[in-house]
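Please decode residue identities from the backbone states below.
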């Protein structure tokens, strides 16, 4: 088992081809996130006074359309997981709005929010920590049904066995405990639990990062198959760029609490317009020695600034080779440099030079 995932967009995941495919058309908005912020207070001293804030998510806006998979990528600590948890209201947002199927979640009372959570579920990153070791698999998968009062004992048992079959596990494993399963099997149990209430939207928070490389493709293929069969919508959070390209319809790149680029999968990977996205993709080794020898690697200098004290202006300017005075003073607008049919949103003052 390894915790380190090789980020490699050029190592083809199953189903990925070199030729770009026309982006699918999605027209019904399921999730509408506007100016979402999540700040964590910094407390010091005997009186535990608030002396500052960690700006984990700082003004994020995007839409997720029904039936699509939006991939959210970025380095560790950029706010990806916090954004996903804030959308589901597992973390209470500091500011902003989140609409799910035209219903505002941030102002919803606890009773209505509890009912809405039946339609929104999460697959957690660590299959070891997210399953209660004292509960059997049957109890783990049936717990959402019990919480939401769905069915009786017999129907819940049948539903659990059906879910285990759907995720590729033996339905007679219901009386086993999590420690009796491998990491990949545990993640499948987590997927079955997320599917129990027939949700329409699932946040997959780095669901493959804790798995062996040999198991990752199996889990991603399973998620993609379930999406097609059940009509699911995903927010797929990851740092494995090959898997993100394989499963996503659109890709958002996040840096220091903000989204810096958002477009269709092929647009982001083939025509990146933000210097940070270009640096991420340039770090990917190419399996062709001739191409590897000809391409230019972009080396970012310096460390990622602290989210407690982000830079003025463009947050990427301390590490950007194209930074000018305007980058150091003015926060770039998140604007469309694509077309009406295939928008390419980017937050960079000098993105036109990469068109």
């Amino acid at each position: 088992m390894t915790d380190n995932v090789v980020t490699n967009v050029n190592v083809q995941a199953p189903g990925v081809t070199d030729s770009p495919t026309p982006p699918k058309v999605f027209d019904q908005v399921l999730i509408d996130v506007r100016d979402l912020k999540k700040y964590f207070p910094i407390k010091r001293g005997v009186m535990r006074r608030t002396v500052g804030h960690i700006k984990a998510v700082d003004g994020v806006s995007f839409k997720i359309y029904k039936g699509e998979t939006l991939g959210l990528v970025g380095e560790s600590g950029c706010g990806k997981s916090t954004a996903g948890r804030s959308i589901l209201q597992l973390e209470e947002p500091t500011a902003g709005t989140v609409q799910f199927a035209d219903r505002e979640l941030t102002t919803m009372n606890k009773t209505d929010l509890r009912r809405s959570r039946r339609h929104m579920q999460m697959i957690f990153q660590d299959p070891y920590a997210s399953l209660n070791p004292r509960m059997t698999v049957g109890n783990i998968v049936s717990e959402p049904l019990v919480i939401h009062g769905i069915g009786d004992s017999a129907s819940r048992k049948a539903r659990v066995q059906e879910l285990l079959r759907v995720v590729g596990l033996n339905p007679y494993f219901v009386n086993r405990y999590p420690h009796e399963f491998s990491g990949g099997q545990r993640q499948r149990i987590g997927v079955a639990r997320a599917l129990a209430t027939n949700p329409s939207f699932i946040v997959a928070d780095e669901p493959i990062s804790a798995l062996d490389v040999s198991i990752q493709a199996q889990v991603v293929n399973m998620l993609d198959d379930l999406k097609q069969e059940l009509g699911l919508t995903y927010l797929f959070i990851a740092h494995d760029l090959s898997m993100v390209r394989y499963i996503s319809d659109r890709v958002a790149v996040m840096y220091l609490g903000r989204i810096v680029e958002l477009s269709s999968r092929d647009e982001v990977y083939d025509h990146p317009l933000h210097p940070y996205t270009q640096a991420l993709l340039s770090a990917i080794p190419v399996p062709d020695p001739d191409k590897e020898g000809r391409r230019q690697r972009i080396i970012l200098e310096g460390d990622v600034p602290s989210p407690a004290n982000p830079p003025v202006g463009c947050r990427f300017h301390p590490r950007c080779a194209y930074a000018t005075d305007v980058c150091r003073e003015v926060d770039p607008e998140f604007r469309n440099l694509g077309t009406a049919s295939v928008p390419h949103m980017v937050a960079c003052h000098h993105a036109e030079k990469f068109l």
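Observation: Residues 1-20 have pLDDT under 50 and may be disordered.
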